[in-house]
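PROTOCOL LOG
Step 1. Enter all chains and additional molecules of the complex.
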Amino acid sequence: MALVKRKGITISRQIMDDQLLHPEATGALTGLLSDLVVAGKIISAEVNMAGLADILGQSGRTNIQGESVQKLDVFANQTIKRRMEQCGHICVMASEEEEDPIPALPGYEGNYTIAFDPLDGSTNIDVNVSVGTIFSIHRRTSANGQGVVTDLLQPGSKQVAAGYIIYGSSTMMVYTTGSGVHGFTLDPSVGEFFLSHPNMRIPEASLYYSVNEAYSPHWFDGIRDFINHLKTEDKGRKPYSARYIGSLVSDFHRNLVKGGIFLYPRDKKSGKAEGKLRLLYEAAPLAMVVEQAGGRAITDDGRRILDIEPRDLHQRVPLIIGSKQDVDMAEQFLRGE
Ligand code: AHM
Ligand code: MG
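Step 2. Run joint prediction.
Step 3. Record the structure below.
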């Protein structure tokens, strides 16, 4: 899909339009998402400078918030935290970078919670591979004041908005508020996200799988049989190809646009009894996006990701996510059919 002209729909316009679909809305979610967009732009600017940090780092360069250059994942975490804790719409947050829940500043508490992975795939930054921010937003369950951990421990099916920002060859924000998935591309010359991918739909079936095959000696039989099946011709369909970046947002985004299935299963030996990825700020938000785009997300024992009741903030979950027919097929193998 081609980038919409500069006079096209901005992300703020789309967020407002989404709000109009909910006559009861107060504008709080709109305000929250708008602040998140600002955080995304700030992180994008810093990520784009990452390659220069070694050159400029010693010269006392300061970033947009007046601080000296920091590690990017720390920077991303602080940027989102600062914007969210005083945006007036959040009561509590969870971040991959922080052990405990982070309450909103006193006097700024609102009705929503946000869980985020500030810079997923950050081991890839040094080698110029795309990284991303993932976010998940719920309505609070406690009455008022600063939020508590139980406000954050809600299943993905109760998310009111979810999405990610990918810092790639261009910066894109992809999100859903439950009425389809929209993708926006940042035009750096004007500092605005424009609608480039309206009503995104993941292809029903694909010929691509994304998994870290180095762990295959430790896989359970269902996963091994499934991947072996993908590699062979079947009833006239070609064998699948592998695509694995090792940066979840990038792998997911490619599959969303082109079709594909991503797997991070449990295994027997590598110490990943629950897989690696986190439920609250990696699996659940991407599961909402994929379902809104017509795909599926399940665990490797066939549970729908969005139905899982979280037990703790940083809980891990095995994840199988992508094109509907591919996930259906995986499910059959996992059931031993
Ligand atoms: P991180 O949150 O520490 O960046 O780890 C999550 C990343 C994902 O982006 C990616 O899908 C996965 O780790 C890759 O793990 P592995 O190297 O085991 O394949
Ligand atoms: Mg992560």
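Step 4. Note key features.
Residues 96, 117, 120-122, 212, 246-248, 276 surround AHM (ligand 1) (CB under 6 Å).
The chain has two domains: 11-197, 208-334.
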